[in-house]
Amino acid sequence: YEEGNIPKTEEGKLLKGFKEFIAQFESRSPVMVAHNAKFDMRQINDALKLRHRRMGFLPKYPVVDTVTLTTKYLQPLLVGLEDMRATNPEIDNLLIKLRDEHGRWVSRLGHLGTAFDISTEHWHSAVADAE
To answer: Chain-centre distance of CA 47, in angstroms?
Structure first.
């Protein structure tokens, strides 16, 4: 559901549609990618378990969590750029955008979108989050 663009659909129909979408890639050994994937996968499987038992769980595909990629790879890379802040305003601006008000690194999708100049206008919709 995206803010009035399509009619709200029942959860069961959404879950069924998501499972059908995934099933079309089964023969190609898909890898699922999501930001904060542990949360998303838990929510989907909990909904299937609690409300739609007859549907079964999602297949056990590998899942890449972009929060993990951010914390394990992007943040250490950015630490390496700290020495360039004084001489490069673009790097300084990027590093400012990727820290919270207490100076800690952030991995929230909104901060990443802003830092890398990616629109977050419709974020928290599956399509916008994937972009």
So the answer is: 19
State the Cα–Cα distance between residues 102 and 14, nearest whole angstrom.
39
Considering the entire predicted model, what is its pTM?
0.69
Helix or strand run (H / E) with residue 63: strand 63-65
Helices 11-23, 37-51: axis angle to 10 degrees equals 120
pLDDT tens string 33-89: 888 888 888 888 888 887 766 777 788 889 999 999 999 999 898 888 888 888 999
Whole-angstrom Cα distance, residue 3 to residue 62?
31
Written as six digits, the tokens of 108 are 């929230």
Phi, psi of 120 (to 5 degrees): -115, 25
Which residue type, as a one-letter code, is found at position 28? R
How many Å apart are CA 15 and CA 62, to the nearest integer?
19
Distances, alpha carbon 74 to alpha carbons 10, 12, 77, in Å: 38, 37, 5
